[in-house]
Design a protein that fits this description.
about 80 residues
Length: about 80
């Protein structure tokens, strides 16, 4: 609802669908399931499901990239016996 209020050109159903699938898409590795849940629960058609798919893909890829960078920077010192 807040996204629709900030950007009134974005339809309410698309904003809710994108947020409904994009936020958990960063943590859950089931993008097709999230797209289907968001599209069916909000009642989106085939054409308006594309922004939902983009939201899931972007959130998953950004989270994966950030975790990759963080994991490379954190080094565990080896204790020599």
């Amino acid at each position: 609802m807040v996204v629709h209020l900030i950007f009134p050109d974005i339809p309410y159903a698309i904003a809710v669908g994108c947020m409904l699938s994009g936020v958990p898409g960063a943590f859950i590795k089931a993008p097709l399931g999230l797209i289907a849940i968001a599209a069916l629960s909000v009642g989106l058609g085939p054409v308006t499901t594309a922004p939902v798919a983009v939201a899931v893909a972007v959130s998953y890829l950004l989270t994966a990239a950030i975790l990759t960078v963080v994991r490379k920077r954190v080094t565990v010192p080896h204790i020599h016996a």
